[in-house]
Write a structure and sequence with these properties.
The complex is a heterodimer of chains A (244) and B (241). With 244 residues, chain A is an all-alpha fold. In chain A, 82% of the residues lie in helices and 0% in strands. The structure holds adenosine-5'-triphosphate and magnesium ion (MG).
Chain lengths: 244, 241
């Protein structure tokens, strides 16, 4: 537990010593604002639950930005060989994996927290269901956590950060695409309803949308937990077998 | 104490370490010699628990590395060959971080960091960012990291690599001084270093020990009273292999 915190502190300092975290947060905020106010016309539509105007765009932004923040997670350790220090410290690989993962997750928690003006605005303009908004935030953060876990897994393979970025983004984009409305409809016309339903539920979109509208379905949490757990277990497996 | 029994390591079909056994007792400084690619660093990586051996056992102060890795690793201070560091930290920040990992906190941590900075002459660069350090200072920072928790066992892979003559001298003296109360295993390509600070030396070639003894015994073994001569006799030339 203490080891996790020591690693976490170092990672946090490193994120906020470098520009990547600031830039990613900044781009995220700008992009989300533009989408909400200009493209989706939040003011005119008056979407008090924020589900179409605000949260709708998050997964797409995360597809690129989450891997950018996470790409140095293990790639940098391989490149600078500090993995050899970590491997000979009297701590378990799990403490390092979790410390690093939680630090990257904190960066995104900060990014999401900084969107609070939108929440204040909706409350000022109308009378939204704050439970649904909270559920939307939760869904958005879970997408973040899933993408981060995938980035962690990919970065454990290679010392090349660019390779990590490209592959993680690609995998996240696939997860996003499966079950996206248009794709789902296309699958439905070719393979029928049942196939489409199964197909859709393997992607991230279905689970994200369900939390967006305030549905706390067990299957959504199971899905997110599975993706995160499998990716982190995979990270542990790759790191250990790389050393063997 | 370091005890290594029948250690083997192969990478694919390539055998890097071939049935190596040795023992270093408390108060001993063992010099690890051998040509490039002999398997010195590979052996050290297994002794420090960075990767597991293909076969064989390592134990540190009677703690088995395979069954109790965390307890065994806690006894070791290790300087890897490439002196890896986190470039985004300051020297002091990095030492504090490693002290934290070693379970030192509060005033213990502060004292340990100060002591390591003094021992490795890092006062001048204590607040400098690591990515702007010169090669020698990087090496010394990583050496400082290995001394922080006052470990019983020190494993140093080419500790004087890249240091200036004054610092080389200081590090040799340091090894000799620490060797009185600790167990030290260090590798080097500088034969004078062996005579200067080792109580015993082994020469490794192609993953096997080909000579073992005190510096004096080794010199006598050569027949010409020179380590250099023995080294040439027992190791294979790259060109011949
Ligand atoms: N990860 C690895 N994968 C494949 N081969 C490796 C790996 N690490 C080391 N080797 C091989 O094992 C052999 C021993 O390497 P090692 O680094 O232990 O040599 P060394 O004695 O430390 O040499 P030097 O004096 O140059 O530091 C070399 O032939 C090297 O190519
Ligand atoms: Mg070496």
């Amino acid at each position: 537990m203490k080891d996790i915190f020591t690693i976490y502190k170092r990672e946090m300092a490193s994120y906020f010593n470098q520009l990547t975290a600031y830039i990613s947060i900044f781009i995220f905020l700008i992009f989300v604002m533009i989408m909400t106010f200009a493209v989706a016309q939040f003011m005119r539509v008056g979407d008090a639950s924020l589900q179409y105007t605000f949260f709708y765009w998050h997964p797409l932004v995360y597809v690129l930005l989450v891997p950018i923040v996470g790409m140095r997670m293990w790639s940098d350790e391989h490149r600078s060989n500090t993995i050899e220090l970590l491997g000979t410290f009297p701590i378990s690989t799990w403490s390092v994996i979790l410390g690093k993962y939680l630090a990257a997750a904190t960066v995104w928690l900060v990014a999401l927290a900084l969107t609070f003006p939108i929440w204040i605005t909706t409350n000022y303009l109308g009378d939204p269901d704050n439970f649904v908004i909270f559920s939307g935030y939760l869904g958005s953060f879970l997408v973040c956590l899933s993408f981060l876990a995938i980035t962690s897994l990919v970065s454990s393979f290679t010392k090349d950060q660019v390779v990590t970025l490209v592959i993680s983004s690609f995998v996240c984009f696939l997860l996003f695409l499966i079950g996206f409305d248009q794709v789902a409809r296309w699958v439905q016309t070719i393979f029928g309803d049942e196939a489409s339903e199964i197909f859709t539920s393997t992607g991230i979109w279905d689970h994200f949308r369900s939390l967006n509208v305030g549905n706390f379905r067990l299957q959504d949490f199971v899905w997110f937990a599975t993706v995160i757990l499998v990716s982190l277990l995979g990270t542990n497996f790759i790191l250990n077998s790389k050393r063997a | 104490m370091i005890e290594v029994n029948n250690l083997c390591k192969s990478f694919g079909s390539k055998v890097a370490v071939d049935d190596l056994s040795f023992k270093v007792k408390k108060g001993e400084v063992l010099g690890f010699l051998g040509p490039n690619g002999a398997g010195k660093s590979t052996t050290m990586r297994m002794v420090t628990g960075y990767f597991p051996p293909t076969s064989g056992e390592v134990s540190i102060c009677d703690i088995n590395m395979r069954t109790h890795p965390e307890q065994a690793k806690a006894k070791i201070g290790y300087l890897p060959e490439s002196a890896p560091l986190y470039d985004d930290m300051s020297v002091k920040g990095f030492l504090k971080f490693t002290a934290g990992i070693r379970g030192l906190a509060g005033s213990d941590q502060k004292d340990a960091v100060e002591r390591a900075i003094e021992t490795c002459f890092l006062q001048k660069v204590a607040y400098q960012s690591i990515d702007t350090l010169s090669k020698g200072y990087r090496h010394r920072t990583c050496l400082a990291q290995s001394l922080l928790h006052d470990p019983e066992v020190l494993i140093l892979d080419e500790p004087t690599d890249g240091l200036d003559p004054n610092q080389k001298y200081e590090v040799r003296e340091l090894i000799k001084r620490l060797g009185e109360s600790k167990t030290i295993l260090f590798s080097t390509h500088i034969l004078e270093e062996v005579e200067a600070s080792c109580t015993r030396a082994v020469i490794v070639d192609q993953g096997r020990i080909v000579a073992d003894g005190t510096p004096e015994e080794l010199r006598n073994q050569s027949g010409k009273d020179s380590l250099q001569e023995l080294f040439r006799q027992v190791t294979t030339l790259d060109t011949a292999a």
